[in-house]
Hints:
CATH architecture: 3-Layer(aba) Sandwich
CATH superfamily: NAD(P)-binding Rossmann-like Domain
Strand content: 15-25%
Distance between the termini: 24 Å
GO biological process, one term: import into nucleus
Radius of gyration: 16 Å
Pfam families: NAD_binding_10
Domain NAD(P)-binding: 7-189
Order of helices and strands: EHEHEHEHHEHEEHEHEH
Largest sheet: 7 strands, parallel
CATH class: Alpha Beta
Helix content: 40-55%
Strand order of the largest sheet: 3-2-1-4-5-6-9
Protein name: NAD(P)-binding domain-containing protein
Shape: globular
Structural class: alpha/beta
GO cellular component, one term: cytoplasm
Amino acid sequence: MKAAVFGGTGAVGSELVLHLLKSEKWSTVITVGRRPLAAEVAAMGVDKIQHFKINMDNIAVEAEPALKGVDTVFWVLGTTRKDAGSAAQFIKVELEWLTDVAKVAKQNGCKHFSLLTSQGANAGFWSCGLLYPKTKGLAEEAVKAQLFARTSIFRPGLLDRGDKARAVEAALLNIVPTIKAVDVAKVMIWDAEAWNDHKGGTSVEVFSMGSMQKAAKLGSAPLP
């Protein structure tokens, strides 16, 4: 199978790329981003990885070659309002780029879109103070609107990013329930492999933190 990963340098994305490269079920792993591929990743996946370095503001055009013949698109790209610099830039990264990629993936025949969002995602939130969950919810709706044969939406709570944890996240790790970034990555892959093995019907599945934790413990594809 052939996978395309957007956000492959983040906490979940880096684990996703690593485990896709290790899996014999994936013959080609495509990574798309604005930075060059890390040398150690390129060396590890020399026989099966392809990297497209693009201008993300022209993502609809420049990402298209990367999406031809892809079985599953994994979107694990994300930011925060603080890191983005403004609400407008946050929306561009979280929603506009995603919408462009989903449309192009659909046009190029992709059947499965796997999307990482967040616990509490809700397109119905209107308050400016709830920009994050609303934008995540709108992102889910944007992908669902493309009517992929399979849309998988993953809504983790607090991620345990290990050494990549932000200061606030690190402070909360021993207080609130968490899920390891590597477990999220594995569960997303298992879900994609299970669906690609069977390709049964059209479906949209939303996976909660609890279902992901259970799947990670069992070592199997998650149940909604």
